[in-house]
């Protein structure tokens, strides 16, 4: 089975722009979570979606939004990009909230 | 905020030696997961240990969990140069406001010299 996939791999944007990151979970996984990892730190939780509903939100501004589609894939949107949004954005999926969470390869976002 | 705190922050050993990394956390958990990350790429899941388990093995990995001390340890035996990576513990609080959310520590950077 394919693992979690994310696109694009790398992205370069300028301040003020908008970005959309995409994630496809492992087949059969209904939960998708998004994390931001700044260089030298551990990942920070942004959102979790389960069965297409938002189930958790981390301490991120409203510029960050996400959604989950009927096929359980997900998008993370970030508006009005700031330099500090430069990071590795990780998507993770799990079958339910009691099992392992598996991560994709991430999208490296650079904001200039 | 980071719940898990890994110790040490960096560990340098020779191939064949054992590597032990520790993780402490603050609140109650449903389970604790260990991950490996190579050079800023995606996280590779290593092992999950549930709150009612005390020890778990997977190949050269051994994880312990002490919920009374709110701590866990990851032991890698007979290390290889390919084990060089950052290792993170992540706590899973389960239901309520932390439903399904993983909280990561800062990680331990392990370097294994050939």
> Which two chains form the greatest contact, residue counts included?
A-B, 30 and 29 residues
Cα shape of chain A: globular
Number of contiguous helices of chain B:
0
Backbone structural class of chain B? mainly beta
Number of extended strands of chain A: 11
Overall SS class of chain A: mainly beta
CATH architecture of chain A: Sandwich
Mean pLDDT of chain A: 94
Largest sheet, strands/sense/barrel of chain A: 7 strands, mixed
* Mean pLDDT level of chain B: 90
| CATH fold name of chain B | Immunoglobulin-like
Parts with pLDDT < 50 across at least 5 consecutive residues of chain B: none
Discrete helix count of chain A: 0
* General form of chain B: globular
* CATH superfamily descriptor of chain A: Immunoglobulins
Percentage of β-strand residues of chain B: over 45%
Count of discrete domains of chain A: 1
- Give helix and strand order of chain A, one letter per element, not per position: EEEEEEEEEEE
Strand tally of chain B: 11
Helices and strands in order:
The complex is a heterodimer of chains A (112) and B (114).
Chain A: E1 5-7, E2 10-13, E3 19-24, E4 31-37, E5 44-50, E6 53-57, E7 64-68, E8 74-78, E9 87-94, E10 102-103, E11 107-111
Parallel strand pairs in A: 2-11
Antiparallel strand pairs in A: 1-3, 3-8, 4-5, 4-9, 5-6, 7-8, 9-10, 9-11
Chain B: E1 5-7, E2 10-14, E3 19-24, E4 31-37, E5 43-50, E6 55-58, E7 61-66, E8 71-76, E9 85-92, E10 102-104, E11 108-113
Parallel strand pairs in B: 2-11
Antiparallel strand pairs in B: 1-3, 3-8, 4-5, 4-9, 6-7, 7-8, 9-10, 9-11
List its salient traits:
heterodimer, A: 112 residues, mainly beta, Immunoglobulin-like, four-stranded antiparallel β-sheet, B: 114 residues, six-stranded mixed β-sheet, five-stranded antiparallel β-sheet, 11 strands
